Amino acid sequence: MSDDVRIARRLRIVGRVQGVGYRQWMVWQARALGLDGWVRNRTDRSVEALVAGPTASIDAMITKCRQGPGLAQVRELQSEGAEDPGAIGFSEEATR
Question: What is the pLDDT of residue 96?
């Protein structure tokens, strides 16, 4: 698969990822990589995100998300294919 092929992935990040600035950090990281999508807290204390963009940028984002910001402790990251939302920018959404 070519690095410039556009794909979309739905991520679920589990661990100490709420109350540590994870969503705001992810918005900054995704925008720096030129990705589209969103991030939100889930009521089960995980973080969910939809990221879309070039394959190489998605791979870089997933690598960054496994680490997270300084206070986060990522225990697990799940990734699955998703429908591309198109060019919508990257934003933080309400908890779901």
Answer: 83
